[in-house]
Design a protein that fits this description.
With 222 residues, the chain is of the alpha/beta class. It folds into two domains: 3-136, 3-Layer(aba) Sandwich (Rossmann fold), CATH 3.40.50.2300; 148-215, Winged helix-like DNA-binding domain superfamily/Winged helix DNA-binding domain (Arc Repressor Mutant, subunit A, Orthogonal Bundle), CATH 1.10.10. 50% of the residues lie in helices and 13% in strands. The protein is built from ten helices and six strands, in the order E-H-E-H-E-H-E-H-E-H-E-H-H-H-H-H.
Length: 222
């Protein structure tokens, strides 16, 4: 199945480069191009792409506001937003996650990393760059406002030994495919373990699972 991608960036040259890269992959295709946040929302509603590749800084409605409008629309629940920006700063990362983005990647990522990121979010998995993961962890540990909603919830004793092992790898920033390779499992099995761990711990998403792992001492902050 081809993954349809909507490109949202106010610079035509950047859109053209991304379009050429995405169309070079057999399993990806460009569904459309948006020049700003408002245009991204309009085209998402019209085209229903699988993934929106969203820049942050755009004139008018910025990418984060557009992301929030897309993820808040009940008719667009199948659409995933991957935020891609030069400005990989703490506030942008947290704002993107709060707006419902499925992933955050810096523009310094390699072409292969970008294509893989699109595939990851299209599968319904959350994706954070290594820096974004560190920011989420540091902010959650330091700020009560960013803490999990239920800090007194179940501890890691509810997990099986395998689930604890996998949660530790998630907290180190590994994807499901990387976990599968490390533990000699199938990607589907790794994903199943991650989902079960999230359900047992009451984690809303993968980012919160990372925070819980650090708070429980499963992986010491570095």
């Amino acid at each position: 199945m081809t993954i349809r991608v909507l490109l949202a960036d106010d610079q035509a040259l950047i859109r053209g480069g991304f379009a050429a890269l995405i169309d070079s992959a057999e399993d990806l295709a460009v569904a459309g191009e948006a020049i700003d946040g408002a245009d991204a929302v309009r085209q998402t509603r019209a085209l229903r792409p699988d993934v929106v590749l969203m820049d942050v800084r755009m004139p008018g409605i910025d990418g984060l506001t557009a992301c929030g409008q897309i993820t808040a629309d009940p008719a667009l629940t199948a659409v995933k937003v991957l935020v891609l920006t030069t400005f990989e700063q703490d506030d942008y990362i947290l704002a993107a996650l709060q707006a419902g983005a499925s992933g955050f990647l810096g523009k310094g990522a390699s072409p292969t990393q970008l294509l893989d990121a699109i595939r990851v979010v299209a599968r319904g998995e959350a994706l954070l760059s290594p820096r974004a993961t560190r920011v989420v962890i540091e902010r959650a540990l330091a700020s009560p406002a960013a803490a999990p909603a239920d800090p007194t919830g179940p501890d890691l004793s509810v997990l099986t030994e395998r689930e604890r092992e996998i949660v530790a790898l998630v907290a180190q920033g590994l994807s499901n495919d990387e976990i599968a390779g490390r533990l000699f499992l199938s990607p589907l099995t790794a994903k199943t373990h991650v989902n079960r761990a999230m359900a047992k711990l009451g984690a809303r998403d993968r980012a919160q699972l990372v925070v819980l792992a650090y708070r429980a001492g499963l992986v010491p902050p570095r």
